[in-house]
Amino acid sequence: MGIRSLVSWMLLAGVLCAHAHAHLGAAKWTGVAQHCNASSHADKDPESVAEMVQKSINNSTRRDLAYLSCGTGNPIDDCWRCDSNWERNRKRLADCAIGFGRNAIGGKNGRFYVVTDPGDYDAVNPRPGTLRHAVIQTEPLWIIFQRSMVIQLKEELIMNSFKTIDGRGVNTVEYMHRCRHGYFHVVNNDYTHWEMYAIGGSANPTVNSQGNRYSAPFNGFAKEVTKRENSNGNEWQGWNWRSEGDLMLNGAFFTPSGAGASSSYAKASSLGARPSSL
């Protein structure tokens, strides 16, 4: 899927933890891989965190309505995109986080590591210059890419602590492998060319999909946008997943579940969704 904006679900998820896993190339993560324990690192006052997120979004939306040329209404995007020299100040992104990930530092205190080789030759002894070699280093690293590239990972990507994979740029390709627990607002993205599905989930997450454009591949067995992992129908039918204002193309379809009432998705809401036709 081509992502047009930073993914707001990363800000709302209740757990930002341990190792990041990926099964698809060309990454765009602002998240952090840090060793942690979800229970011991849980925020003691999650409601106040949610209120802080909403306040930041409201402030950013007001700035957007004030016709700032750089404003998007997304406080994360606005934080770094309004800097005309953002490419020279990439690490400023670490200071833009809100919500449960607001204290994550990733590779901010480390050097830049430039990925020059899109290959994934050896998962055990990766070649220097590859993404896999970068993420297993023990030191903090801010990982960027020398040029536009497609990385086909042969094995899941296991990241060491204090790493940031910064692939900001046009036509970045990724997908939401698995939403777990927490609340996820998937808003105003353009999903194309997924191989199996666009949004996966397990462990009863709440998924609120609004204003997205889903263009299914030509594979007739991969038209469904959603996939529930490690659960049977009797279980996942109670998970709150909804699609609202999404545009389905080329036979794409979203399988909803759970409650349809908007109140059930209050915690899985961030910025206001714009029409998917734009």
UniProtKB/TrEMBL annotation:
Q: Which UniProt keywords apply?
A: Signal
Domain of life from the UniProt record = Eukaryota
Database matches in PANTHER family:
PECTATE LYASE 18-RELATED (PTHR31683), PECTATE LYASE 20-RELATED (PTHR31683:SF120)
Region forming the signal peptide? 1-22
State the InterPro entries in the record. AmbAllergen (IPR018082), Pectin_lyas_fold (IPR012334), Pectin_lyase_fold/virulence (IPR011050), PEL (IPR045032)
Q: What is the lineage of its organism?
A: Eukaryota, Viridiplantae, Streptophyta, Embryophyta, Tracheophyta
For this entry, the protein name equals: Pectate lyase
Span list, region Disordered: 259-278
Whether Signal counts among this entry's keywords is: yes
Q: Specify the species.
A: Taxus chinensis
Select a single GO molecular function from the record's annotations and give it: pectate lyase activity
